[in-house]
From TrEMBL:
Residues 21-265 form the Calcineurin-like phosphoesterase domain. Monomer. It comes from Rhamnella rubrinervis. SUPFAM superfamilies: Metallo-dependent phosphatases. It catalyses: CDP-choline + H2O = phosphocholine + CMP + 2 H(+); CDP-glycerol + H2O = sn-glycerol 3-phosphate + CMP + 2 H(+); ADP-D-ribose + H2O = D-ribose 5-phosphate + AMP + 2 H(+). This is Manganese-dependent ADP-ribose/CDP-alcohol diphosphatase. The keyword Hydrolase applies. Belongs to the ADPRibase-Mn family. Transmembrane segments: none annotated. Keywords: Hydrolase, Metal-binding, Zinc. Its cofactor is Mg(2+).
Length: 324
């Protein structure tokens, strides 16, 4: 099965640590079909991709943790099977010999409300919030953003965040079908119901985390289901207020890499401040027998993503200083 797309380790150095990555498993026990724009999706095969990923990560015996970039179950999963199907995919992650840090995606929220979903994914945020951070070593901090904080999906219908999202969509997208980008131009095409935004409280929290990381001379990796830079994704997949989030991030120098999912074909760019944005290829779109997962070797001055099969390998080099 899928071979690793090896990068040459130029310095021949041992990584500080490694972690595993996979995105958009979108498993459902339903026949294969195509996305709205005609891309084939392999719903039953995607859990096999996850199983092979976990097997490979465990064989390596050196990954400190795994990151799941969201959308573990597809929205087409019959609703009476949602809970069982989410649990079934989580059980596969639990076979990994280490903790998995999960993000929520739109498809997770089509299946289960936040108050049911978050405990199953062991997401620690209070009041249904799905943003949190952790430090695997003293030099690095990982920040998990909740891209569906302001969203028309996942919160109760009368929740202030649902109401804020509906009002926002009403202003930004004139289509009756709010998932349709018809008539929207350029970056406006992100104003779709299947996307979401980072709210004021979460932005304040992020500001505090980046201040603290700067004081502690930590390098930061930002992770979110939704991409944060138009250079790494289609316009239709961007976080609604990616610009606001990036303007905040750019006031600091500690963030080195932003990782995301959602835009299934994947992408990579380096922004005007030297931050790498890498969107990961989806497990769902792997034709039977192919794979899309990987692991990242972390060094003082770069993150090296070693992808398997359809996941491209990417060397992400940066200035080693966290506070300059
Ligand atoms: N160009 C597009 C893309 C999507 N839609 C709507 O979004 C829904 C979800 O799309 P998938 O990528 O998950 O297939 C789809 O059912 C459409 O309602 C659209 O209108 N135009
Ligand atoms: O996973 P979906 O169905 O939400 O698709 C998201 C699209 O890839 C965004 O362009």
């Amino acid at each position: 099965m899928g071979s690793a797309n090896n990068l040459v380790n130029a310095q021949g150095k041992e990584p500080l640590f490694s972690f595993s990555v996979i995105s958009d498993v979108q498993y459902a026990d339903i026949p294969d079909r195509r996305s709205f724009i005609g891309v084939p999706r392999f719903y039953r095969h995607s859990i096999l991709v996850l199983q092979r990923a976990v097997q490979q990560w465990n064989d390596h015996k050196r990954h400190k943790f795994a990151l799941n970039f969201g959308d573990i179950v597809d929205g087409l999963c019959p609703k009476d099977q949602s809970l069982g199907t989410v649990r079934k995919v989580v059980e596969e992650f639990e076979k990994f010999n280490g903790p998995t840090y999960h993000m929520i995606g739109n498809h997770c929220l089509y299946n289960l409300p936040r108050d049911t979903l978050l405990p199953i994914l062991k997401i620690p945020g209070p009041d249904g919030r799905a943003y949190y951070d952790f430090s695997p070593t003293s030099e690095f901090r990982f920040v998990i953003l909740d891209g569906y904080d302001i969203s028309a999906i996942g919160w109760p219908q009368d929740h202030p965040n649902t109401l804020e999202a509906l009002k926002f969509l009403q202003q930004k997208n004139p289509n009756i079908e709010k998932n349709s980008p018809a008539g929207l131009v350029g970056l406006e095409r992100r104003f779709l119901k299947f996307n979401g935004g980072v709210g004021k409280e979460q932005l304040e929290w992020l500001d505090g985390i980046l201040q603290e990381a700067t004081k502690m001379k930590q390098k930061v990796v930002i992770c979110c289901h939704l991409p944060l830079d138009p250079g790494a994704t289609s316009q239709e997949a961007l976080l609604w207020n990616y610009d606001e989030v990036m303007n905040l991030i750019h006031t600091y120098n500690c963030v080195k890499v932003c990782l995301a999912g959602h835009d299934h074909e994947g992408g990579h760019t380096i922004d005007s401040h030297g931050i790498h944005h890498r969107v990961l290829e989806a497990a769902l779109e792997c034709p039977p027998g192919t794979d899309a997962f990987g692991y990242v070797d972390v060094y003082n001055d770069r993150l090296s993503l070693i992808g398997t099969d359809r996941m491209e390998s990417t060397d992400m080099c940066f200035s080693p200083q966290a506070d300059l």
